Structures are given as structure tokens and as C-alpha cells.
Amino acid sequence: MPADATKIDAAGGFVMPGMIDSHVHLPSVGAAAAELQRLKDLIPFQALQGAANARTMMNAGFTTVRDVSSPGFANVAIR
């Protein structure tokens, strides 16, 4: 171990690399009329929205997500 490394005693606790969410819709805006909004927004915009949502999830501690449905393969663009 490097001399300047921080050592954390996790005795009696759990260590996990990150949380997993196996059902998300990354491009979703979460609005009340989300399905209608999905029809209005262009797919490149949905991919950008999804990337922003992915960053928010990552900052909240999620390291793995599974997007279950994205129009126009926006989820593949986010990947």
C-alpha cells in the first residue's frame, strides 16, 4: 500500500462498489405528461437528457443501471 493511501476500517460493516438499478428510463423527464413529452422531444435531445440523468444517478452512488426502454435507441447513445 502506498504511504499516502487512506486506510478505512470497515470492520463490522459492508463495502460495496456501488448501487445497481435494474429498471430505469434514463431519457425520461419525470413529468406528469411524460409520454406526450416523449413524442415531442427529438431523439438526440432525449439522449442528452438521459446522459444528464445518468450523471445524476452516478453522483448518487449508482454504478450500474439497466435502461429498459428508450425510443430510437437513445439508451445506446447514452452508453
Structure characterization notes:
With 79 residues, the protein is an alpha+beta fold. It is built from 3 helices and 2 strands; from the N terminus they run βααβα. It has helices spanning 34-40, 43-59, 74-78, and strands at residues 19-24, 62-67. Strands 1-2 form a two-stranded parallel sheet. The longest helix is centred in the middle third of the chain and has 17 residues, at 43-59. The radius of gyration is 17 Å and the shape is elongated. The two termini are 34 Å apart. 14% of the residues are buried. The model has no long low-confidence stretch (mean pLDDT 87).
Topology (SSEs and partners):
Blueprint (H helix, E strand, L loop, with lengths): L18 E6 L9 H7 L2 H17 L2 E6 L6 H5 L1
Strand order within the widest beta sheet = 1-2
The H-and-E topology, N to C, reads as: EHHEH
> Which residues form runs of ≥5 with pLDDT under 50?
none
**Can you summarize the main beta sheet?**
2 strands, parallel
Q: Report the total helices.
A: 3
Oligomer: single chain
Short précis:
With 79 residues, this protein is an alpha+beta fold. The chain is 37% helix and 15% strand.
Which features does this protein show?
alpha+beta; 79 residues; 15% strand; elongated; single chain
